[in-house]
Write a structure and sequence with these properties.
Strand content: under 5%
Radius of gyration: 20 Å
Largest sheet: none
Number of helices: 8
Helix content: over 70%
Length: 259
């Protein structure tokens, strides 16, 4: 087996092994109380990998069975990723009652707008995939990636106004999710225009990116840093600096929304 083959298997397997380590570290530090949806996602991804890997290596597995199981795992993973975004918003705004009330409609309408944009882009960039089922699956996945990338971009802008420190675990979770969604979206766009020409190279890029994202999560959630007060208790916003401006926005919004 050549070097590229070893690299392929490493990038395919290693991120999920690291996620098992992350899952165990979150249990030991009780971080599931601060980030329950991210904790569920961290446990779900290695499970999905083990099942799909076993099916792929099982001679009796039919393409229909693999496709069905893959769709189920992808649907759950995508739902959890959107849940992580909502969890980050909720953690950031938990101390600001008025801004928290605005979170749900902003999140809902932003998702709807990005969904329409994503559907339009997918329709415009229809690819050369002859398998209709896989094409439709990748189209839906591409729409989800557009939604996630757009929401994460807006989230980073919002965190910038909140002055959230880059050392905060929330920032690390968002950074990993944003990096993965952006690279996956770029790879999906290239595949949509070129078919299978660059699939092998793109697989290395996307798998390597996910590996990097898991390392980012490991660093932000499990590596202690000075001034954080520990990650096991209320770590969500402990590194948040002075937010007097945000408190002013909260009070002004509360005054405007008061009947």
């Amino acid at each position: 087996m050549g070097l590229l083959a070893w690299l392929w298997y490493y990038l395919w397997i290693a991120p999920y092994v690291l996620q098992v380590v992350l899952f165990g570290g979150m249990v030991r530090r009780r971080l599931y109380r601060d980030f329950p949806v991210f904790f569920a996602y961290t446990g779900w991804e290695p499970l999905a990998f083990v099942v799909l890997f076993s099916l792929a290596r099982r001679p009796a597995t039919t393409p229909t069975l693999y496709f069905t199981v893959y769709c189920v795992f992808l649907a759950v993973s995508t739902t959890l990723r959107f849940g992580i975004l909502h969890e980050i918003f909720a953690s950031v705004l938990k101390d600001y009652a008025t801004l928290r009330r605005l979170k749900s409609p902003v999140f809902r309408w932003g998702t709807m707008v990005l969904l329409l944009v994503g559907l339009g882009l997918v329709a415009y960039a229809r690819g050369n995939n002859a398998d209709q089922n896989w094409f439709l699956l990748h189209a839906v996945k591409q729409v989800a990636l557009i939604l996630q990338s757009g929401l994460l971009f807006g989230l980073f802008l919002f965190l910038r106004y909140l002055n959230l420190s880059w050392r905060n675990p929330l920032f690390g979770i968002a950074l990993g999710m944003g990096t993965f969604a952006s690279v996956e979206l770029a790879a999906a766009a290239i595949r949509a225009r070129t078919g299978y020409v660059y699939t092998g190279y793109l697989d290395y890029v996307t798998m390597g990116t996910y590996h990097l994202c898991v390392v980012i999560w490991l660093y932000y959630l499990l590596v202690p840093r000075r001034g954080t007060g520990g990650f096991g208790q209320g770590s969500g916003l402990q590194s948040l600096p002075d937010a007097a401006d945000v408190e002013s926005w909260n009070q002004e919004l509360e005054r405007l929304l008061r009947p």
